[in-house]
């Protein structure tokens, strides 16, 4: 059976950066990655971002390019093994962790959860029926399909605004339909939205139903907009939050909070279970950005190094 000092669950930006750092600390590392909704098994959520302007050292780059750099950097260390396998179960046996995937079983002295999140799905009549027929969750992936079309984003977060900016590159009209008074996003994104003539915000409004024939044709709103409750659309993208992928950690006895985020010690990235660490979007870190996650991931790699060295863990 393959044995490792550290098993990293999740090959998003955080998992990859942690692997690089752990290898520099001479830890033998395995990283498991699979796609939870994003098109790619490796790279994670940042691959769904068209423009990244806030990752230090990269004035302006694409999420895809950035994740490729992180992947190549991790791969440049011989001590790093990357497996495109979905981890299905992890058990602690004495001081060793047994990591089970659909393709095999592996032993590790320590575990780092960098499993991230997946999109919360819309739940109105028509949302399931028209999924991939006009209802989508990854604007970067699908925006080119809506060239010169009319689309809407449901939500008011920074993700919603970056989706609107991506879609406005292709579509002729972009609505942001938001149930609250004003959208909550990075000031720079709000300014870009305001300057973009194609983008219009419909606030204090919810969608009640998605209608169409073979594809989406319109949505029903819970309030009239320009004297009608029906808005003609060709596409709808939801940015209504994320589900934290912490099931595996919970099953291992790791403490999580009410929303499902893994609770970590913010100085060491340790979790409530000895030998288990966590970093990135799946943790209870409030400001979820790649750079903040990478910071926690590198800290977790160092804490794992200390744990494996101090405890003289035998597997
Ligand atoms: C539209 C959008 C725009 C954004 N823009 C920016 C930005 O400009 N700058 C910025 O810093 N941040 C941005 N962010 C936030 C940033 O993308 C995230 O903070 C960061 O990518 C999180 O990385 P992560 O590695 O923690 O999680 P993820 O990237 O979600 O990676 C987790 C990985 O783990 C995998 N995984 C989960 N469970 C398992 C399992 N059981 N087995 C194997 N693999 C598993 C998942 O498939 C995924 O690939 C943006 C986010 C969105 C949605």
Which helices and strands, and how do they pair?
Blueprint: E1 2-9, H1 13-24, E2 29-32, H2 63-75, E3 80-83, E4 87-93, E5 96-101, E6 105-113, E7 117-119, E8 135-136, H3 139-142, E9 150-154, H4 158-168, E10 173-177, H5 187-195, E11 199-202, E12 207-212, E13 216-225, E14 228-232, E15 235-238, E16 242-244, H6 247-251, E17 276-278, H7 290-311
Helix pairs in contact: 1-2, 1-7, 4-5
The chain binds flavin-adenine dinucleotide.
Flavin-adenine dinucleotide binds at residues 9-15, 32-36, 44-46, 48-49, 52, 54-55, 86-87, 114-117, 159, 162, 245, 248, 280-281, 288-291, 293.
How would you concisely characterize the structure shown here?
This protein is of the alpha/beta class and 315 residues long. It has helices at residues 13-24, 63-75, 139-142, 158-168, 187-195, 247-251, 290-311; strands spanning 2-9, 29-32, 80-83, 87-93, 96-101, 105-113, 117-119, 135-136, 150-154, 173-177, 199-202, 207-212, 216-225, 228-232, 235-238, 242-244, 276-278. The strands form four sheets. Strands 1, 2, 3, 4, 5, 6 and 17 form a seven-stranded mixed beta sheet that branches. A five-stranded parallel beta sheet has the order 8-15-9-10-11, with helices on one face. A three-stranded antiparallel beta sheet has the order 12-13-14, with no helix packed on it.
């Amino acid at each position: 059976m393959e044995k490792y000092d550290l098993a990293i669950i999740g090959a998003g930006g955080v998992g990859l950066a942690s692997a690089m750092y752990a290898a520099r600390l001479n830890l033998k590392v395995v990283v498991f990655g699979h796609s939870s909704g994003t098109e790619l098994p490796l790279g994670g959520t940042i691959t769904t971002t068209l423009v990244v302007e806030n990752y230090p050292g990269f004035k302006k780059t694409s999420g895809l390019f950035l994740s490729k750099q992180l992947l190549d950097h991790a791969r440049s260390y011989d001590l790093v093994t990357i497996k495109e396998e979905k981890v299905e179960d992890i058990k602690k046996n004495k001081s060793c962790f047994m990591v089970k995937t659909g393709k095999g079983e592996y032993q590790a002295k320590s575990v780092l959860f960098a499993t991230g999140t997946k999109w919360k799905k819309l739940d109105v009549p028509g949302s399931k029926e028209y999924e991939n027929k006009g209802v989508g969750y990854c604007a970067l992936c699908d925006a080119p399909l809506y060239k010169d079309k009319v689309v809407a984003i449901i939500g008011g977060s920074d993700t919603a605004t970056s989706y609107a900016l991506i879609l406005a590159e292709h579509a002729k009209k972009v609505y942001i339909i938001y149930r609250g008074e004003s959208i909550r996003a990075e000031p720079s994104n709000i300014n870009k939205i305001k300057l973009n003539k194609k983008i219009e915000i419909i606030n204090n409004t919810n969608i009640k139903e998605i209608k169409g024939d073979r594809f989406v044709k319109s949505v029903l709103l819970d309030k009239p907009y320009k004297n009608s409750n029906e808005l003609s659309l060709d596409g709808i993208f939801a940015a209504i939050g994320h589900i934290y992928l912490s099931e595996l950690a919970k099953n291992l006895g790791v403490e999580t909070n009410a929303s499902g985020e893994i609770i970590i010690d913010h100085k060491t990235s340790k979790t409530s279970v000895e030998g288990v660490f966590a970093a990135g979007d799946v943790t209870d870190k409030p400001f979820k950005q790649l750079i903040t996650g990478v910071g926690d991931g590198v800290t977790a790699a160092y804490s794992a190094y200390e744990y494996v060295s101090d405890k003289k863990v035998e597997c």
